[in-house]
Amino acid sequence: MQGLAASWRLYGRTDGVSRGVFGVLAVLLPLLAWSAVSYLPFVWHPQVLITDPGGEDYLESGMRMNRADFSRAVTEMQAKNEPVPQGIAANPVYLPSPGEVLTAFVHAFTSSAPTGAEHSITQAFGHSIQIIFWGFLISSLIGVPLGVMCGALPGLARLVEPSVDFFRYLPAPAFGALAVAILGIYDAPKIAIIVIGTLFQQILVIANTTRKLDFALIEASRTLGAKGLKLLFRVVIPGILPDIYRDQRILLGWAWTYLIVAELIGTSSGITWFITQQARYQHFDNVYAAMAIIGIAGLGTDMVLGLLGRRFFAWKREIDG
Amino acid sequence: MTEHQLPDYRTLPADVAERMDQIRQREYVLEIDHVGKVFAQKRHQTVALEDIEFGVHRREFVCVVGPSGCGKSTLIRILAGLEETTTGRILVDGKPVNGPGPDRGMVFQKYTLFPWLDVCRNVMFGIEMGGTERAEARRQAMQWLQVVGLEQFAASFPHQLSGGMQQRVAIARALAARPRVLLMDESFSALDAQTRLKMQNYLMEIWRKIDITIVFITHDLDEAIYLADRILVLKPRPGRVEEVIEVPLSRPRRAAQMMSDEFLATKAHLEGLIRSFGGNTEETDEGADDFTMPLLTLVTDKAE
Ligand SMILES: Nc1ncnc2c1ncn2[C@@H]1O[C@H](COP(=O)(O)OP(=O)(O)OP(=O)(O)O)[C@@H](O)[C@H]1O
Ligand SMILES: [Mg+2]
After folding, report:
1. Is residue B300 part of a domain?
2. pLDDT (tens digit per residue) in A232-251
3. Statement to judge: residues B9 and B136 lie in one domain
4. Distance from CA of B265 to the nearest CA of A (A)
5. How far is the CA of B169 from the centre of ligand 2 (A)?
């Protein structure tokens, strides 16, 4: 109880119980709100889903229309003494209920519908993961070492950072056509877009992190005889590793935002292609299921990475409190 | 005047005079050869040190005192090689040195243990930098931890130790690299009075046991007199050597000596010197001398 109250004070200290309570509420509250909007007709339901067109010939069952138009149709039919159209209150097609999305979600893992290159959500998602993985890996293999060196060597920083800063402001999509022209239409240009979107930020972010290492530690190690590569590998890198890990987590999130662009160039593919296809057929339950998969996968990886980070870098957490 | 007259701080007791003679006969380990330092900022230049000339004998304990801003930290950073000289040079064992090196260990005022290494690995750091292989380095590090009385904390991490313990590990870490000179910049000033006294005794105990020369910076006059063979007094703006004092206290030192006449006489003299520089050991920038307390008109504490 005390923990709950303290959670609402500025910089208050929370206890494990209230953290758990808030964690559950964080998931539950949005779900409850969504359910209320979906299942309680008086909350929103601005449309009517036609179940029986009656005598009105422009109506079809399964069609959605605004409530006002529907009641106009009803009065019209009543006046003409023809069968009155029947319908139930419904939400717009772009807001399926949690139940429908859950069904689509389960369906995604249990069946495959042969439509196009990516047959199911899982296949589409698997393809997206591959693009992200290779893009982020290639970017990190260049960006992390280069960033560390820029942070540690002022000369290199002066030489490299201005042009990196220039490229960082060029939007990655601008490279789309170029990437396709050079790398073909399949996965290579997509991976290239992820690399372009991530790499330049990565170099600057990692360089800044490296520069922020407590200089007193460098001086202390110098008076103990450390220099050159030994200084780099025994002091600089262990000292900044927890912060680089944190940077990489954030950058991985950015890589995901470039996925949309990457998957739309050349032959469109992956989860983005799946979502746009399903949206075109108005299968919004599938769209939401796909979004849920992305969100859950993202949140899941980030939580796992956070837990691992706390294990690896216990000393850092103890210092930062 | 009912107070009894303090002796002249310059008259050394016989045993101290003999000891100072012995020290003077030893060779210089550290020489400060006409060192000057100018910090050039955008507009103006700060002359931090001007023509410092001083030699530290082998196994001598030298303290440096002076008002704030007189260049004590600048001097010791130059000795450590962390700062370049503008003029002059530093010699260790007669050879000029350039940049930091393992021959001059340093203990900083800030806690600078590597937070990602446990206590033992921290002490091993300097030994391993010297090229010793790991098992041997570990053995030596454990010995040094024994010297500072912290061998049971070998597996702890720095953030799990108190400030005093961290500074003891820092001393062990610096000594483990086998330096010729140990440089200390207000290393105990963040500690409380009791811990500080304990640390001072520790330091003198270690210094007695091993072949090490110590240059110790402090703004605490008691600390300087208690620890030092000689005290180097700097005067500010520009930083110059004002006086070199031979401390008239016999060794081994005990806290009780802080009440002796010799101690009080030396302290009285030092206090007079520092006061003569204009101001106490607090920040004394231009205009700070005629600092007047503004009227606190908001305070309405009427006793009615
Ligand atoms: N990096 C720097 N750039 C410019 N001026 C500096 C720099 N470092 C020190 N100074 C100046 O040099 C003078 C001596 O500074 P220093 O830190 O050595 O004093 P100090 O004796 O250690 O003082 P304190 O007792 O407060 O630690 C001061 O006037 C300071 O302003
Ligand atoms: Mg200082």
Report:
1. no
2. 999 999 999 999 999 999 99
3. no
4. 37
5. 21
